[in-house]
Design a protein that fits this description.
alpha+beta, six-stranded antiparallel sheet, 539 residues, 15% helix
């Protein structure tokens, strides 16, 4: 991100804090920082275009596209082929902006009318024009339902020898049908399962082969006789999927053996007696699939509450189905999906806690998810959440995925958090872990546009008072009011190098914001002595 031509904004003293730096692993004190500048640069993710998309013209949003492509409009074009099978030679002829076809997952689309609607810009989409572009598409948009989004411009199928499918097969949003790639996993790394029974119960056990499991490793969905359990480990899901021998109650027990590191799920039989087997394996039973896949398993969750956080951000509480459990690890994400104008639309969110002091037993029991969501007026999914998502309504929620390993913090005593806007969300669980479950010291640099945009400002202030020697928040605003006494301006590498701490043994840093913000901060870390293993960037 380059520097603009505007002068740097002078930084006023940060609001007084009860904590003090005390050593080289903490940021400079408020008095020290008052002598630094945060130089105003070209808008970063904290204050500029929050999603780093091309600015489209009026009437070019995804909602506009969905309306335009709805029946009876015909967008296939006059050159649409008579045959439903298209050769690679024919596809290659259509590679110009006024005549652009593309093949994705063996299907050919006339993307000419869609070019001006593409959030990444027409030039980006034209990289695949006239080609079989499945790999390119999957790399950038692995979870986009292209069949739904481009169904109005579908021309036909690509002749089979003209394309090769990617490692993942066709996406489906139906939970009971998973078509997923299987990973080759050494036998010693596989999760072993077994079961035993009494007249009243059937218990399924999972053994980690020398590794200890926690409840966060398990995702459980029971729908009548269908039992699906995903054991998540090392960015893979080990799938256990059975149609049970007989009916069971919706209530079941999940037990964790601390000594053996195994998980047991005890089901209550509706009729007492002995089963002949645990049940019939489904197609994906015992498969091992990657976190990042076109195929995500969804369950319908219900909106239990929604609470205003700021003018444009709300805290949504989603209750899982009665017989589902999911404990989402720190820094991991889920995908929300619902139908908008006939198309499956989804977005990714990092779950938070009910508060910074995490007091919801339902969340502790894996029965609900809290999401802090900023609703954009010109968005596709979030306007429907803002205006048409009522208590009791349902929405599809995927399995979780992510790369952060909490074990990275085991030998650390200081945590540096750098967040921009809703990049605050992964920091919530980190703050709770560091302050309530461990004895870590935490400093957070929180970048926002205006003071009214600061998420959970009063809760942050309460934690500063509760942990005066261990927790401090430094707020930086890019467009502050005249009476703002804290730091102000937009970040540059030079200004960040001045205010952020240099590395010391036991330090760990996490950053989350829009891509350009993350890139800026990550490029600054080497100057401060941070190594790759000392940093986690959430995207």
């Amino acid at each position: 991100m380059g520097c603009g031509g505007t002068k740097g904004a002078t930084v006023a003293p940060a609001p007084a804090s009860s904590g003090s730096s005390g050593n080289n692993s903490s940021p400079k004190s408020s008095e020290d920082m008052s002598n630094n500048n945060l130089t105003v640069s070209q808008p970063s993710g904290a204050t500029g275009n929050p999603r780093n998309k091309v600015i489209l013209g009026p009437g070019r949003s995804l909602v506009d596209w969905l309306k335009l492509s709805s029946p009876p409009n015909n967008l296939k074009g006059t050159g649409a082929p008579e045959s439903s099978v298209i050769t690679a030679e024919e596809l290659a002829k259509h590679n110009k902006k006024d005549d652009a076809w593309i093949a994705i997952r063996g299907k050919v689309y006339n993307i000419t009318p869609y070019l001006s609607f593409h959030p990444g810009g027409a030039d980006e989409l034209m990289k695949g024009a006239g080609k079989e572009a499945t790999n390119l598409f999957t790399e950038v948009h692995p979870w986009v339902n292209v069949e739904s989004m481009l169904k109005a411009v579908f021309l036909g199928t690509l002749k089979s020898e003209a394309f090769s499918r990617p490692s993942s097969s066709k996406r489906t949003s139906t939970p009971s049908r998973l078509a997923v790639p299987t990973l080759a996993v050494p036998a010693q790394q596989k999760i072993r399962s077994d079961w035993y029974q009494s007249d009243g119960t059937a218990t399924v056990c999972f053994y980690p082969n020398g590794r200890k499991l926690t409840l966060q490793n398990a995702i459980i969905d029971l729908n009548q006789r269908m039992l699906r359990i995903a054991i998540c480990l090392n960015e893979r899901r080990h799938i256990y999927h059975m149609e049970l021998f007989e009916d069971v109650e919706v209530d079941y027990e999940v037990q964790l053996s601390e000594s053996a590191g195994k998980i047991e799920v005890t089901l209550k039989k509706t009729k007492t007696g002995q089963w002949g087997s645990i049940g019939t394996p489904k197609e994906d039973h015992e498969k091992v699939v990657p976190y990042v896949s076109e195929d995500l398993f969804y369950r319908k969750c219900t909106l239990a509450s929604r609470t205003r956080v700021t003018d444009n951000t709300e805290l949504f509480c989603l209750k899982l189905p009665t017989a589902s459990r999911m404990w989402i690890p720190i820094g991991h994400h889920i995908r929300l999906q619902r139908v908008v104008h006939g198309m499956d639309v989804g977005r990714y969110y990092t779950p938070v806690l009910s508060s910074l002091e995490g007091d919801d037993k339902e969340q502790t029991n894996g029965r609900c998810i809290y999401l802090m969501i900023k609703c954009y007026d010109n968005g596709t999914l979030t306007p429907t959440l803002k205006n048409d998502f009522k208590i009791g309504d349902s929405i599809d929620v995927s399995d979780y995925f992510g790369t952060f390993d909490q074990a990275q913090l085991d030998s650390r005593d200081y945590l540096l958090l750098i967040a921009a806007g809703t990049g605050f969300t992964p920091m919530v669980k980190l703050i709770y872990l560091a302050l309530f479950e461990r004895q870590m010291k935490v400093d957070m640099f929180f970048f926002n546009r205006e003071e009214k945009d600061i998420l959970w400002q009063s809760e942050l202030e309460r934690l500063e008072k509760k942990f005066p020697e261990r927790f401090r928040v430094i707020h930086i605003l890019s467009e502050p009011a005249a009476d703002w006494r804290g730091m102000q301006g937009r970040p540059t590498q030079e200004s960040l190098s001045e205010i952020l701490p240099h590395i010391s043994p036991g330090n760990f840093a996490c950053v989350c914001g829009p891509p350009k913000f993350n890139e800026l901060v990550e490029n600054t870390f080497p100057k401060l002595g941070f190594r790759l293993e000392d940093v986690q960037a959430f995207s």
